[in-house]
Design goal:
Helices cover 51% and strands 18% of the residues. With 488 residues, the protein is of the alpha+beta class.
């Protein structure tokens, strides 16, 4: 008795070939020059729609794979059951044939559609009732390793599983073919497919609705933030975006947005105050200068005209210094975070600035025992040191001290400029670094202060990656500048 071979009846094209052709056709359609722009326009634009579509597509893929696996397992199990029944029927007929008790008409078991037994000459020696008097079945084609048969003689064309056995009989070998119907398997597969399709549709609809609502609720604060930001103008920087109570990414975004608005409002306030202070600082000497020139132009006494012109010259010099400071501040603001990287011998710079010979009100005690190098702009660092020295000279009683050291822990460079003058109140230690700020004991214009020296010095330190603070010392006040050491 030979091993059985199974054959399936074709009903249309093979599923693999059909899927391949469908995929190719869809690819060509989507690439069509008229259809591609339409598909692009139909692509969802909003985050809510894209999220919903992505969720539905992901769930659809998972459902498709799971459904395909379920259908495949169901189909395999059902076909295996049908094949087992057909094989048992064929083996029973083979035993009858081997014993020489093969009747010309064979009875069908439950689940089998036909039986046909042929000898070596192709003559039918036994058959089931529905194939009685029919010619022998012959394979019509071979596909995927399985022989196929034309079973239209049964009057109903449907899937069959044909089992073929060879048995030896007293009259010679015979071939037994038993066909089992797959109608039950097809019906079960169709019902399961319909059920899975219905459940998948309901599940996809549920996922889409839940995702749409959840995304809408999640993005509602974002829309509120967008609307508030769109409504904020250059004169409404005091407005703030609503911050959700939840501690999530959107709440952090709103908090960051409000912090940015705080900085913008502070910058706008500083800018307006700076413009107002600059206008006031320029208006006063300009008014005095014009008055002096008008009087000098009409005054009859030469000596008085000379004094007036000299005073006008002093005010002109003051205006020039103020204009230079304003230009330097503008340059520092434009530089932003672009840190200069030129090597600068800070020790030599300090020694040059503190060298004797210049007209100073008080002597300078210099303590710079070692050569210290930093990276930066030598002109700007020189201006920082000059501003600190000028400020110390204006407020010192008898002595100005300059000390240059290195922090052994961090490697930073420390530049201390101290004076033995009045101490600065704690509430004023930050205010003195605001532009055009003068303390009550330093408001005299005759002393030459413009209120820009310390702000310029702090901006220069910040551009070089450092800091500038005011500290109290036993002998007075120290302005400490901390700069990063030179990069090696």
């Amino acid at each position: 008795m030979a091993d059985p071979t199974r054959a399936a009846h074709p009903r249309g094209d093979h599923p693999r070939g059909t899927r391949r052709r469908v995929t190719t056709a869809l690819h060509r359609i989507t690439r069509h020059p008229r259809i591609a722009p339409l598909l692009e326009r139909l692509t969802p634009r909003s985050v809510r729609a894209r999220t919903t579509l992505a969720a539905c597509a992901s769930v659809a893929i998972v459902l498709f794979v799971a459904s395909a696996a379920v259908l495949l397992l169901l189909r395999v199990n059902l076909e295996r059951t049908v094949e087992t029944g057909a094989r048992e029927q064929a083996q029973a007929v083979a035993r009858l044939a081997s014993d020489g008790h093969l009747p010309p008409q064979l009875a069908l078991d439950h689940g089998t559609d036909f039986i046909q037994v042929t000898n070596n000459n192709g003559k039918v020696v036994a058959a089931s009732q529905n194939l009685a008097g029919r010619p022998p079945l012959t394979p019509t084609a071979t596909r995927d390793g399985h022989e196929t048969y034309d079973l239209g003689v049964l009057g109903d064309e449907h899937h069959q599983r044909v089992t073929t056995l060879t048995a030896d009989t007293p009259a010679g070998p015979v071939t037994i073919r038993v066909g089992a119907s797959l109608h039950t398997a097809d019906t079960a597969e169709d019902l399961t497919t319909a059920a899975l399709a219905g459940l998948s549709g309901v599940l996809l609809l549920t996922v889409g609705l839940l995702t749409w609502r959840a995304t809408g609720r999640a993005l509602r604060p974002v829309e509120a933030i967008r609307a508030e930001v769109a409504a904020i103008g250059d004169r409404d920087l005091d407005r703030r975006v609503p911050e959700p109570r939840s501690d999530d990414e959107i709440a952090r975004l709103a908090h960051t947005m409000n912090a940015m608005l705080d900085r913008l409002e502070a910058a706008g306030t500083r800018q307006r105050r700076f413009i107002a202070d600059a206008s006031h600082e320029l208006r006063s000497p300009l008014t005095v200068l014009r008055t002096q020139l008008e009087i000098a132009l009409t005054h009859p006494q030469p000596d008085v005209r000379t004094d007036l012109v000299a005073g006008a010259l002093q005010d002109t010099e003051r205006l020039q210094v103020l204009a230079n400071d304003l230009l330097l501040l503008a340059r520092l603001d434009a530089t932003g975070h672009d840190r200069p990287d030129e090597p600068v011998n800070l020790t030599e710079l300090v020694r040059t600035a503190a060298a004797p010979g210049a007209a100073r009100a008080h002597p300078i005690a210099l303590h710079a025992p070692e050569e210290i190098t930093v990276t930066g702009n030598p002109l700007w660092l020189g201006r920082l040191l000059t501003n600190l020295l000028d400020n110390a000279q204006r407020h010192a009683r008898s002595l100005v001290t300059v000390r240059l050291t290195t922090d052994g822990t961090t490697g930073d460079v420390l530049l201390d400029v101290s004076n033995d003058g009045p101490r600065i109140e704690p509430a004023d230690r930050e205010r003195i670094f605001e532009r055009f700020t003068r303390l009550d004991d330093a408001r005299s214009r005759d002393e030459g202060g413009t209120g820009l020296g310390l702000p310029i010095a702090r901006d220069i330190a910040a551009i070089h990656g450092g800091t500038l603070i005011a500290e109290d010392t036993p002998d007075g006040t120290t302005f400490r500048t901390r700069l990063p050491g030179a990069r090696t």
